[in-house]
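Quick one: structure tokens for this chain, please?
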Amino acid sequence: MGLFDGKQLIIENTFEIAKLCAQAAHKSSQITGRVEIKSMIVTGEDIEPILEVMEAFAQVMPPAGGDAMFLRLAYDQGRAPTLLLIGADLRTSNVGYDCGACGFDTCAEFNKYSRDNPPSLGVIYQGPSCVWKTIDYSAACSWACAAAWQYNITNRIQGTSGMAAQILSCPEGCSTVLGLPLGPADEDLFWYNRPGKVFNELFKYEDMMRFFQNFICAYWESFPGAKPMVKGKDNWWEEPHHVLRVLEDSPEEVNRFHQDVGEALQTMVQINIAMQQRKIDAGLKKPD
């Protein structure tokens, strides 16, 4: 018996749904049967280091800043999503297919290159990646999203929060991590209907136009390589006559970009130290 605030209960219930989504990811079908899925669930104040990394990279990676803005808004309102992190190490091939899809003739050549060329500190989405294991990893993420859909909870797989988590080694030993924010359960997090009021409060029109221009390849083009076609009509692929001329950034813009990257990396190092202590306190990592 008792009286409960339904809104508060469904916000708290995102944790239970995250566990079911993680179960779905670990149980997903695989082609190779060789991908070790790793997962971590982040709730409450422990999501803040991930938000801080996303915010630190906002100037050099606007999508990270945009996603962080909405997650931060929900966090400050006391209804932060539960974040499910799904990762795997795709930099080794133990399937023995020798298919060449990765760009190497054999799996042995692929593995030798991976061993001889470890990723630099701070590199995200570390490659090369075994294509077959990448397919299996993608299926695991899709199964997690499908499980969330069954409970009618706002969810969207993210590279941005996964990028921030990977920088913080959450989970450990992954070459790729994607984040799945679950919630807020009480109302939409602007992924789908994107209400104009919220956008008008958070963004200036000039900032939005600059964002779309900086990411024209994602919003208006077809990712065809060095000579991108402009999607100027519905059947843009039939007559690819329009091409863009890429202009070099000015020295001032290049210097500013390098400065922003340097500042982001400095912030990342500080946040990473604090996050490792959080993992030790939670029993997810042994003290060094």
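The chain has a mean pLDDT of 82.
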